[in-house]
Amino acid sequence: GQNIDQPTEMTATEGAIVQINCTYQTSGFNGLFWYQQHAGEAPTFLSYNVLDGLEEKGRFSSFLSRSKGYSYLLLKELQMKDSASYLCAWLNSGNTPLVFGKGTRLSVIA
Amino acid sequence: DSGVTQTPKHLITATGQRVTLRCSPRSGDLSVYWYQQSLDQGLQFLIHYYNGEERAKGNILERFSAQQFPDLHSELNLSSLELGDSALYFCASSVGMGQGPYNEQFFGPGTRLTVL
After folding, report:
1. pLDDT at A1
2. Contact yes or no for A102 and B41 at CB 8 A
3. Which of A45, A98, A100 is best to mutate for the B interface (most B CBs within 10 A)?
4. How many CB atoms lie within 10 A of CB B90?
5. Phi, psi values for residue B28, rounded to 5°
6. How far is B107 from chain A (nearest CA, A)?
7. Which of B55, B104, B112 sits opposite A33 (nearest CB)?
8. A88 contact residues in B (CB cutoff 8 A)
9. Disulfide-capable partner of A26 in A56, A62, A69, B46 (CB 3.0 to 4.6 Å)?
10. Cα B91 to chain center, whole Å?
11. Is B56 in Cβ contact with A33 (below 8 Å)?
12. What's chain A look like in SS3?
């Protein structure tokens, strides 16, 4: 199957750092995307990893380990506006498009 | 604003009815994807069109169909509607076939369908 798993909910404090993990099926892997989705709104692209290692983009970083089928999204200096769902999506090497996880709902509290 | 437009924004209809959702991709994008998002299921891929041709099908019911027109806009038709079809329907577009870092998908604002 095309399983992709991430925690359902997380809570973190404003100004802190939070790491959201994602595990996925390794066969036919062609990339890992992270999207942010505020309630009732469209998902917006955050990052893409296809090689092992850390990709940094401002307060957000994404890490990939292909051999372990593991990725994480790191959010630093958390702000209240970061409260949203974070969707991990796995790209197959065939014609099938992105397979999305169910998302991790992050709540940032004061 | 992603550049992807979807109409209508909200749709309320009755069981057994048929509706059409419309999507216009970003200028220059050849791929259109349709997704269904309900509270307990996350984003479920329905179907992908590239330059007018169907490229991939996901968990799309036989009561649902879609097409992409020569001007690249797409329509998703939902028929014999059931209560369980109530969901947010998103359209996304990408410049290529959706493979790789320069083909990330840009999502429209969605159509919220409520079946009563």
Report:
1. 44
2. yes
3. A98
4. 25
5. 95, -15
6. 6
7. B104
8. none
9. A69
10. 4
11. no
12. CCCEECCCEEEEECCCCEEEEEEECCCCEEEEEEEEECCCCCCEEEEEECCCEEEEECCEEEEEECCCCEEEEEECCCCHHHCEEEEEEEEECCCCCCEECCCEEEEEEC
3-state secondary structure of B19: strand
> Which amino acid belongs to residue A24?
Y
Q: Do A42 and B33 touch (CB under 8 A)?
A: no
Q: Which residues of B61-87 are buried (b: 16+ CB within 10 A; e: fewer)?
A: eeebebebeeebebbbebeebeeebbb
Q: Tell me what pLDDT residue B102 has.
A: 62
Q: What residue in A sits closest to B44 (Cα-Cα)?
A: A100
**Residue length of chain B:** 116
Span A27-83, pLDDT tens digits: 777 789 999 999 989 999 999 998 999 999 899 999 999 999 999 999 999 999 999
Residues present in chain A in total? 110
- Is A100's Cβ below 8 Å from some Cβ in B? yes
